[in-house]
Amino acid sequence: MINLAVGFTSAFLVTWLVVRYAGTYARFSLDLDLHAVQKMHQSVVPRVGGLAIFCGTAITFATSTFLHTSPTYEAFLLLSCATPAFIGGLAEDLTKRVTPRMRLLCALGAALAGCFVMGAVIDRVDLPAIDFALAFLPVGVLFTMIAVAGVTNAMNIVDGLNGLASVVAILIFASIGYVAVSVNDWLVASVAFAMIGAIGGFVVWNYPSGLVFLGDGGAYFIGFMMAELVVLLIARHPNISAFFAVVALYPAFETLFSIYRRRFVRGRAVDAPDALHLHTLIYKRIARKGIAFNDKQHATRRNSISSVYLWLLSLITIVPATFFWNSPYVLALSALAFVSAYVWIYSAVVRFRTPSWMLLPVSVLRHASRTERPPAAPDRLH
C-alpha cells in the first residue's frame, strides 16, 4: 500500500505542475488540434499527462530503495525496458511528427528488451499445438514482441474519452495485483500497486473535468507495463492459466476489431484515424443524444459519462480473471461473453438501434438541455 500512496502523491503533484504551467510551453504541451476526426474535446488541453505517471512510477521505485517496498533492482529494470515505448509516445505528444510505424518500432524494441532483461517470454498459451511452437525460443520471443507491442498500442486506441483508458487500466492493474499477491509474486504486486497509485494521481485531474490528457506517452507506458506484468505472471507461475491474459481483452479486442473494420469493411489503411470506435459512437449517439452542443461544461460532462459504459463492459473479463485466474474454462467463457456483448452493442449503436436501457434518462437530458445556452452554430464534433 505504500507504493500506491507514494505513486498517487507524486503523480498528483507532477500532474498539477503540468496543468499549472502548460501554457508556458503551449507549443509543445497542448493539444491544439480540435478538428481531427477522432477528437472529442472543445478546448486546448495539455496532453503530456503520461509524463506525470512515468515520473510518479520512477519516484515510487526510488522510494522503495529506502522503504524496501519492492524489489528495486528488478523494478528499475522493468522501467528501463518501458522507456523506449514511453519516449516514442512522448515524442509524438511534443512534436506531433512521430509516425505510427516509428512508435510501433519503439514498442517492439521495448518488448524485445523485456524478453532478455526480464525473462518475460510467452512460452505457453495452454493450447498444445501452439505451445509446441512457442517452446522454441525465437518463436516465443517473436510472439511475445507482437503481443506486448499490440497491447501497448491498444491502450492508445481506447484513450479517447476522459477517464476511459486510465480507469480501465486501474481496474486491470488491480486484478494483476490481486493475482500476484495470491501467488506471492512480490515484484509484480508492488509494480501493479505503484501503477495504480500513479494513474490514480493523474485521474484526479483528468476525470471528469478533463484538465489534462494521458497522451501517447502515457498510453504506451501504461500498455507496456500492463502487458509485461501479465507475461511475467504467466511465465513465472505455471499454476496461472495463460488465459488470464483476457484481463486486458477490452483494449486488445478494440484494436483487432478496428483493424478488421478499417481494412476489410471500409477498405482503408489500418492506421487511418476514424470516429467509429465504440467509445466514440457511445459518446455521439447516446451521451449527446437529443441535446444541443455548444456548452463546453456540458460537453465535458457528457464525454465523461460515456466512459462509464466502457468501464462496465471491461469488467466482463476483468472480474472473472481476478477470481478464476487458474480456470481456463471460466476465462474462455468470459472472453466469449465479452466479444459477444461488444459486437452486439456495437452493431446496435452503429445502426441507430441502441437498447433503451443504455439511454440516459429523459429527465437528465431535458435538464441539461434547459441549462445550456442556445446554440450559435450547428452541432459539430471536435
UniProtKB/TrEMBL annotation:
Cellular localisation: Cell membrane
Entry protein name: Glycosyl transferase family protein
Keyword Transferase recorded: yes
CDD domains: GT_MraY_like
Predominant subcellular localization, coarse grouping: membrane
GO biological process, one term: cell wall macromolecule biosynthetic process
Topology within the bilayer: Multi-pass membrane protein
